[in-house]
Amino acid sequence: ALSRLVPGREFAERAAAALQAEDDEAVRGEWLLALPKPIEAHT
After folding, report:
1. How far apart are CA 20 and CA 27, in angstroms?
2. 27-42 burial, b for 16+ CB within 10 Å, e for fewer?
3. H helix count then E strand count, the chain
């Protein structure tokens, strides 16, 4: 969805910048929530 709003290269750069912002707890939290949880899925 987001890839349609911005150029592919710009989107990739924004994604990389977000991943590099390790000191931003909010960003990290959002990524963790978006990632699948295989351990919890098997419980």
Report:
1. 10
2. eeeeeeeeeeeeeeee
3. 4, 0
